[in-house]
Specification:
The protein is mainly beta. About 10% of the residues lie in helices and about 35% in strands. Strands 3-4-7-6-5-8 form a six-stranded antiparallel beta barrel. Strands 10-11-14-13-12-15 form a six-stranded antiparallel β-barrel. It is elongated and about 65 Å long.
């Protein structure tokens, strides 16, 4: 016969074991699917790559091909547009239109050759002078590609259009122009003194608009002979009329294209409106 005390002890142990099993059954099982994964040690030291700012384009393709230029007073071109396929029905021509040229195979033309369309415009005086001339503005309305050539004439298609093309516009061989890539420089402030570098002026704007601001195209009386290259930056300023030596900083311009004594620039930063007559200083 089992002793009563021993029986009581066994009963208590059995009840406690059952209770513990019941509690364990109410807990969710910690499986590999639901258990939080401990991150690998290497993840604690991995950092995002540092952003590197590279050269930036100061314009787009249309800025360099549609800006025109400030050239010599009387430039000579190899040919011109003398007629067009739809001349009786159209006065102006655009992308895809067919035009006829006054030069052909005897002048070296062949199918596939490309030409820039050029239109002479107004003469531009030197800043502060009514007699001395800087040069003449030449618009570049577009580009054409020769379809076929005869001995003394050629048929061409307008392949790139900036503005209306007209019968009578001249043509010159097309030369690819890259959009300058630049790194921004420190902006001049009103307290910075002149750096002693070459100073010039805005002598004309692309379409005669005034005043001009950011993204406007302007013509300068500085060029390759003054050490300018595409991508160079210039400070645009206006001298104070009464405070000696004080300059009002109007913004910045960057060079798109250059010729010997002139250049085309795009306004990249505007603190105040600017226009013909305002000064530029090479940075």
């Amino acid at each position: 016969m089992r002793h009563p005390l021993a029986a009581l002890t066994a009963g208590i142990l059995l009840a406690a074991t059952s209770a513990l099993q019941a509690v364990d059954n109410t807990r969710p099982a910690l499986t590999r699917e639901v258990a939080p994964a401990r991150p690998a040690l290497i993840e604690k030291v991995v950092r995002a790559p540092r952003t590197v700012t590279g050269p930036l384009a100061i314009g787009v393709e249309t800025d360099v091909y549609c800006s025109g230029y400030l050239g010599e007073m009387s430039e000579v071109f190899p040919g011109a547009i003398v007629s067009a396929e739809k001349e009786k029905n159209q006065t102006f021509f655009m992308l895809g239109d067919i035009v006829y040229l006054d030069i052909g195979e005897r002048d070296g033309l062949a199918a596939g050759m490309e030409f820039t369309i050029v239109r002479p415009q107004q003469a531009v005086n030197k800043w502060g002078s009514v007699t001395d001339v800087v040069g003449r503005v030449y618009q570049t309305p577009g580009r054409l590609r020769v379809i076929c050539a005869q001995e003394r004439s050629a048929i061409a298609e307008i392949s790139y259009s900036c503005m209306d093309v007209q019968v009578g516009d001249s043509i010159m061989p097309f030369e690819p122009i890259p959009v300058p890539l630049v790194r921004r420089t420190q902006i001049m402030t009103m307290c910075d003194t002149p750096n002693g570098k070459v100073i010039g002026h805005i002598v004309e704007t692309r379409l005669g608009e005034t005043p001009v601001g950011t993204d406007s195209l302007v013509y300068l009386d500085l060029g390759e002979a003054d050490g300018l290259n595409p991508g160079d930056f210039l400070t645009v300023y206006r001298a104070s009329g009464r405070a000696e030596g004080v300059r009002t900083i109007l913004g910045e311009a960057s060079i798109l294209t250059t010729r010997r004594r002139t250049s085309v620039a795009i306004i990249t930063l505007m603190a105040d409106t600017m226009g013909v007559g305002d000064s530029v200083e090479i940075k």
